[in-house]
Design brief:
- Keywords: Signal.
- Pfam families: LysM, Peptidase_M23.
- One of its GO terms (molecular function) is metalloendopeptidase activity.
- InterPro entries: Cell_wall_metabolism_enzyme, Dup_hybrid_motif, LysM, LysM_dom_sf, M23ase_b-sheet_dom.
- One of its GO terms (cellular component) is cell outer membrane.
- By secondary structure, the chain is an alpha+beta fold.
- The chain has two domains: about 40-85, Membrane-bound Lytic Murein Transglycosylase D, Chain A, CATH 3.10.350; about 105-225, Distorted Sandwich (Glucose Permease (Domain IIA)), CATH 2.70.70.10.
- Helix content is about 20%, strand content about 25%.
- The chain has four helices and twelve strands, in the order αβααβαββββββββββ.
- Strands 3, 4, 5, 6, 7, 8, 9, 10, 11 and 12 form a ten-stranded antiparallel β-sheet that branches. The chain has a two-stranded antiparallel ribbon with strand order 1-2.
- The chain is globular and about 45 Å long.
- The N and C termini lie far apart (about 95 Å).
Length: about 230
């Protein structure tokens, strides 16, 4: 027996399937809302290098904490752990004092000889989250304080050949636009040790872009420099 399926029944089935597809697409990873303490929701334009710079963690650490098989693949709206469980609470409590109280500041030395006299762009907290220091290609770039190299590579757009040094549980310094690296990831360095040479990688002139970050937040480096 040849049974004819009414046209409107078929149309309703297709409409139902289409509605489910639309709902599934709309029910993707949320892009707003609260996140647990010590975590961060990925925003458009983020990558692990940028997130690591913001929170003072190496990309490899973030990848390990979040079980990322491919660190280059993160999605907008994805929630990532960015702080160790034991230190997230204490870090948030100490944030205001570490950036405000002079007694809690880590004393640093200028990363370039005569750096203070050669600042070409000051920190403003928005378009420039550090200070830019001019110089001659090949000028030694020095560690501002004792610490450990978290990152020494060229993978974060806008920073060129970048070095990140961790100095304690909440303080990190960044040295961007280098010409050559003199240290490697994981290496312990002393204050004043040459870590790179000045260059112009991913920028339009020879300079050092220097940042100080406390609990991941960029602060004005000048008060920290002796």
């Amino acid at each position: 027996m040849n049974i004819q399926i009414p046209f409107y029944t078929t149309l309703k089935k297709h409409a139902a399937l289409l509605s489910l597809a639309v709902l599934a697409a709309c029910a993707g990873t949320p892009t707003d809302g609260p996140v647990p303490e010590g975590h961060y929701r990925v925003q458009r334009g983020d990558n692990l290098y940028r997130i690591g710079l913001r929170f003072g963690q190496s990309p490899n650490t973030l990848a390990a904490w979040n079980n990322l098989r491919d660190p280059s693949k993160i999605e907008v709206g994805q929630v990532l752990r960015v702080r160790s469980t034991s230190s997230s609470t204490s870090s948030s409590r100490s944030h205001s004092t570490s950036t405000v109280s002079p007694t809690n500041r880590l004393h640093m030395q200028w990363p370039v000889d005569d750096g203070k006299a050669n600042i070409i762009k000051a920190y403003n907290g928005t378009s420039n989250k550090g200070i830019d220091i001019s110089g001659v290609r090949g000028t030694p770039i020095r560690a501002a304080a004792d610490g450990k190299v978290l990152y020494a590579a060229e993978g974060l757009r806008g920073y060129g050949k970048l070095i990140l040094i961790s100095h304690n549980s909440n303080t990190l310094t960044a040295y961007a636009h280098n010409d050559t690296f003199l240290v490697r990831k994981g290496q312990t360095v002393k204050a004043g040790q040459a870590i790179a040479t000045m260059g112009s990688s991913d920028t339009d002139r020879v300079k050092l872009h220097f940042e100080v970050r406390i609990n991941g937040k960029a602060v004005n480096p000048t008060p920290y420099l002796n």
